[in-house]
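Question (not urgent): is this output format expected?
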Amino acid sequence: MIFELLGVPPQALFGQLLLGLINGAFYAMLSLGLAVIFGLMNVINFTHGAQYMMGAFVAWLGLKYLGVNYWLALVLAPIVVGASGIILEQLLLKRLYHLDHLYGLLLTFGLALIIEGLFRHQYGSSGQPYAIPDALKGSQNLGFMFLPNYRAWVVVGSLIFCLGTWFVIERTKLGAYLRAATENPQLVRAFGINVPRMIMLTYGFGVGLAALAGVMAAPIQQVNPLMGSNLMVVVFAVVVIGGMGSIMGSIVTGFALGVVEGLTKVFYPEASNTVIFVIMAIVLLIKPAGLFGRTR
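Got this back:
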């Protein structure tokens, strides 16, 4: 009865809800990595989209040339891309910490263009297919819709990774050190903690989250050099709405806005590409620091 009143077939509604949850999973993981990096380093990492793309390419190249399967790629890609992020942080980003935020933003934006250009030159703009692992092929009949196993894994897996990150940062001693280093690095150094090393590893971890999301996205999207840049504009809007540097804000807002975007495609498709930015404008007018953010 309710679907008749809404004038929407139930299959279309649930299908778009699932699509919204999948998009929200990637929004949450990418915005979480940005929040971790910004929260500790005060750097708006525009390279995040390129590093997301690199994670997908590491998985694809590993499968093509080394026979690395999907499950091993989930471990190796974050390590490889995270290590490359640490190199960038040591060579370039660490020189900008004492400067205005704008310099870090411009540097990471330029790095993103360089990385994407190199991959586009080497592999072209056409996408490369990446097969769904055998264990996650097929779907489940829920009665009102068929739920593909891989898409269910993406939603559940991303939620596990996101909440695990939140727990480490908010509920463990290591997380307490990270948060203390954000507020008062001189005091943390006085306790014998190597703050520069902590910052370096935190940047690598945030980059690794982006690479992990890239591996999970590879079987759904085609692996191509522009897959990150097409997504990052929306992800930055998600970060702004949730609150810059807010871990829980990134998770909740990422999933919620993915669902909102999916529902908008059902009820008012013309607004589906702009609804997140409209919400961002409204939130900034009411609460400039974001829904979960703090005024610095």
